[in-house]
Design goal:
This protein has a seven-stranded mixed beta sheet, sandwiched between helices. The protein is built from 15 helices and 15 strands. It folds into two domains: about 270 residues, 3-Layer(aba) Sandwich (Rossmann fold); about 170 residues, no CATH class. The structure holds adenosine-5'-triphosphate (ATP) and magnesium ion (MG).
């Protein structure tokens, strides 16, 4: 059976509130409280606390958190660590990946297919950067340590992000951390943790049942001549923090056992259904394609047919298909540059155009003006910025030397948009260059989305660039 991790993200935009201490020690407590449960930790910060705490002396590591983000299966990056906790090594190069992480769902996807078992705890940087956002999006449970009112104020952004992404805010909970038990107040809130808790609840934030006290013993665990970081479980017995972590661990385990399937499982299911939808839609688009080139009639239906250089589609979905290389180039050349039809295969103008044709998108819209039927032909860059516009008369015969030969533009427009003899549908069409080695790739969701967007944009009659 496949494995799906239950993900706990520790996050706060405020620095020094105890995130890393919580992430690492919670992992140790969870493992100690439930020996058979696999527990692992990964840091999306660029320090090596996790490694210092869990790496076994002399252990050779292979792969780290950047590999996870570069699609290496998560389970293969898990290293057996101390205290029975597994870890994915940290990396200084994480920052270099910042721009390559597109969107907040990347980590969710990677964890859904990671095969990481049990509970995975993610430590984050004190900022809502793209890594943190991904860790928040992937989480079954987010724990936000707050130590004072400013850090509580900072939570607002995490809650706002959840709101924006339509995530369930019930998975967010605050834990008062680094609480100095010596501070006492007059009035309804006797101490710091009660005050923070009341503030949090007043703002609609959920709180963990417990809290974590500030303890000089805990503070000293990462300041020692050996440069080690010792766990609370083994080195701070007898402190309040020791039992507070036990309580928190129990709370988390109770929640974990109450969840039937973690978010990563549901994400994997969603990915499967998305793949199926994309495949069905791709097949549907393939099934609509015309069998032959509308201009020369050559058969383009077989997979081995070559020269499917251009793809066209009408805005009403009435016709779509490929245009053979020479036909498409000649059509566009004659429309945009008034070049003569029947050009030789090695005509320099044709060759030059064929080279640049792949960088452009074309739109054709028939209309009538005082001078009779015309076609507005527009050229756009591949990003959708308009670069050229021409109006061509829509005449059946244009070449006086060859009176029997129909104009290419006329044939094409009537084949694609003809309703009945001499009558056109009220629609326009787009022509896209294809990848000659895999022309059908233009119909794959990621590419086709651009066509749909352009259709919509031009359908609204906007001449502004597509963004
Ligand atoms: N319960 C505690 N009692 C006393 N000191 C603590 C406690 N928990 C953490 N600390 C200390 O507080 C400091 C900050 O903790 P930690 O590094 O875990 O915070 P952080 O939120 O991860 O910081 P950053 O935002 O810089 O990543 C550390 O020196 C740590 O040892
Ligand atoms: Mg930290």
């Amino acid at each position: 059976m496949k494995k799906y991790p239950y993900v706990i993200t520790i996050s706060s935009e405020k620095g020094g509130v105890g995130k890393t201490t919580l992430a690492t020690n919670l992992a140790i407590y969870l493992k100690a409280l439930s020996e058979d449960l696999p527990v692992s930790v990964v840091s999306l910060d660029n320090h090596f606390t996790v490694d210092k705490m869990f790496a076994i002396k002399g252990q050779k590591t292979s792969g780290d958190v950047t590999d996870l983000l570069l699609e290496t299966p998560g389970a293969s990056l898990l290293h057996t660590g101390q205290y029975g906790v597994d870890y994915i090594p940290s990396s200084m190069a994480l920052e270099d990946l910042r721009d390559s992480i597109k969107g907040t769902m990347v980590l969710s996807r990677l964890l859904a297919t990671s095969e990481i078992p049990g509970i995975l705890i993610i430590d984050t940087r004190p900022e809502l950067n793209i890594f943190t956002q991904n860790a928040l999006y992937a989480a079954d449970r987010v724990i936000i340590p707050v130590k004072d009112t400013p850090s509580l104020e900072n939570c607002r952004n995490i809650f706002a992000l959840f709101e924006k992404k339509g995530l369930d805010k019930k998975s967010l909970s605050i834990i008062p951390c680094l609480i100095d038990a010596r501070i006492k107040y007059q009035g309804p809130f006797k101490d710091h943790k009660s005050l923070l808790r009341a503030f949090a609840i007043n703002r609609g934030y959920r709180c963990c049942e417990g809290f974590i006290s500030k303890s000089p013993k805990v503070e000293s665990l990462n300041t020692n001549p050996e440069g080690k970081i010792y766990p609370i479980l083994t080195h701070a017995r007898g402190t309040d923090v020791y039992s507070q972590y036990t309580q928190l661990g129990r709370e988390i385990l109770a929640e974990y056992s109450s969840v039937q399937q973690p978010r990563s499982f549901h994400f994997a299911q969603w990915m499967l259904s998305e793949e199926k939808r994309k495949a069905d839609e791709f097949q549907f688009r393939l099934s609509r394609l015309k069998d032959s080139c509308l201009l020369c009639g050559s058969n383009l239906a077989t997979e081995s047919a070559r020269n499917k250089t251009f793809y066209f589609e009408t805005s009403d979905g009435g016709a779509c298909g490929y245009l053979e290389d020479h036909c498409g180039s000649e059509l566009l050349l004659s429309c945009l540059y008034d070049a003569q039809p029947n050009m030789a295969e090695n005509d320099p103008l044709l060759l030059m155009f064929q080279e640049t044709a792949r960088e452009s998108i074309y739109a054709m819209r028939p209309f009538s003006n005082g001078a009779g039927p015309c076609v507005e032909v527009r050229r756009f860059t591949i990003d959708g910025s308009p670069v050229q516009k021409k109006i061509q008369p829509l005449r059946e015969y244009t070449d006086t030397a060859l009176p029997q030969k129909k104009s290419t533009l006329y044939s094409f427009i009537f084949e694609a948009l003809g309703e009945s003899p001499g009558k056109l549908r009220d629609a326009f069409l787009l022509i896209y260059p294809t990848n000659p080695r895999r022309p059908e790739a233009i119909l794959a969701e990621e590419n086709y989305r651009r066509i749909a967007k352009m259709m919509q944009h031009l359908g609204q009659g906007s001449g502004a660039p597509i963004t």
